Amino acid sequence: MSLPPLGQLDRLLASDAFIWATGVDDTVITAPHATTHRTLDEYELCQHYERWSADIDLIAALGCRVARYGVPWHRIQPTATSWDFGCADRPLERLLERGVEPIVDLVHHGLPTWLDGAWLDPRLPTAMAEYASRVAERFAGRIRWYTPLNEPRLAAWYCGKLGWWPPHDRGWRGFVRVLLACARGVTLSCHALTAVDREIVHAHVDAVDLGDDPEDAGPEAQAEGAFRRELAFLPLDLVAGRVDAHHPLRGWLLRQGASDADLAWFQERAVSVRVLGLNLHPSAAGRKPVRDGAEPRAHAPCTLAAGIDRVVGRHWEHHRVPVWISETAATGPVAKRWRWLDDSVAAVARIRAAGVPLVGYTWWPLFALVTSSYRQGVLPPARYLQQAGLYDCDRSFARVPTPLVDAFRALCARGADGAGRLMREDASHLVTAPR
Predict the structure, then answer these.
(1) Integer Cα distance of 419 and 43 in angstroms
(2) pLDDT digits (tens, 9 = 90+) for 33-68
(3) Cα 240 from Cα 225, distance rounded (Å)
(4) Nearby residues of 356 by Cβ (< 8 Å), 6 or more positions away
(5) Residues 235-253: pLDDT tens digits?
(6) What is the dihedral of CA 410, 416, 419, 423, to 10 degrees?
(7) Residue 334: in which H helix or E strand, if any?
(8) 8 A C-beta contact, residue 79 and residue 67
(9) How far apart are CA 245 and CA 110, in angstroms?
(10) What domains, with CATH codes, occur in the chain?
(11) Nearest to 236 by CA among 175, 296, 148
């Protein structure tokens, strides 16, 4: 099906509607590593900047009518006062020419280098909003689905809690500082997009963890599991202005350095969340909090797809808006990836049969990617290839079709029949009554 504008989101809930999609991994870390001085730009490493037209032809040949597609902010706005849209205009126009509607991924971790302190630069929220507005203005009336920021919770985790990426904060207070900045940027970007076109859909996307408690969990581990589950909802709760006096994490946020004024800012500018994308990979479906001495940590075995039912159900129950799987894939041999495709699509059918409005599925990435370990490594890019796509990449980064190509093409051709019918008598209120 095609992507409906905001005023027609109820089309997603028709029993015979379903979005099959793919996408090209567009992860960017513009800051050089302190030791190797390497950056990470998936489009550059996998040669998509050179192969973009042929790659888009591969998407169209799948029969996909939708693709998540990122545009590189660091190239579009190389300085605070200069703009160059060539690297966005050409591929987005090509997608439209080939009958593929893009869900435009505006920020996928990486930021322009002129933002001092990365997420903590005070210019960040307004800069994100201006960038979002300028992209949307170029395609007003033709592209209406935009993801302001991919995985805000993971951005806060990697940049604020673990300190892997700029601004290299560590600990929960750093996590909260970065998360608040991310959420401010998303909030202002949403308002800027709507100002361009009131029919634009904010296609929010975040990573998920199942966060089940171990069977032998004591009270402490159970409390940790409950905290992690609430944490998964927190970015959009902030954006939606839902962190009020009754929110379970409000006290925790204040103890970690947020202020009442910070939280009031979001309530005054609350964004209506109407659709939610979930990035769900096999390890996330089985991640459970366990104890390692005094410090809780996450244990993430690769599991079967049974966890998809629970994690999608939890996000649906919390947000009560249509959800779509905005990323999923398995890594490794084709047989393993095919098993995940079969198992995860079967989970989609179960979820829809249970009445949960799961309205789309995205196999991401279309072809192999270069792992983030390249940035701190010393070997050539091809030595960091991770085969996770419908297409493999060889050592020269040529796209090599696997049997998954035909399997996914067949799913796209079947439409909603490939995903199972959504069993709801009347779910239109889910998209017509903003929370």
Answers:
(1) 30
(2) 999 999 999 999 999 999 999 999 999 999 999 999
(3) 23
(4) 312, 313, 316, 323
(5) 999 999 999 999 999 999 9
(6) -160
(7) helix 334-353
(8) no
(9) 33
(10) 6-432 (3.20.20.80)
(11) 148
